[in-house]
Amino acid sequence: MPRYRDLFRTPEFTPLFLTGSAHTAAQTVVGLGLATLVFRATGSPLLSALALFGPSLAQLIGATTLLSAADRLPPRATLAGIALFFALGTVVLAVPGLPTWAVFAILLAEGLAASLGGGVRHGLLNEILAREDYLLGRSVTNMSVGICQIVGFATGGALVALLSPRGTILVGAGLYLAAALLARLGLGARPPRATGRPSVGETWRTNRRLLSSPARRRCYLALWVPNGLVVGCESLFVPYAPERAGLLFACGALGMLTGDAAVGRFVPARLRERIRFPLQALLAAPFLLFALDPGLPLALALVTVSAVGYGASLLHQERLMALVPAELSGHALGLHTSGMLAFQGVSAALAGSLAQFTSPRTAMVLLALASLTVTLALAGADRRTDGPTLPTETPTLPTETPALPTEAPSSASRPSARTGRRRTA
Question: Which of 72, 171, 206, 360 could be joined to 240 by an S-S link, Cβ 3.0–4.6 Å?
Answer without folding.
Answer: 360
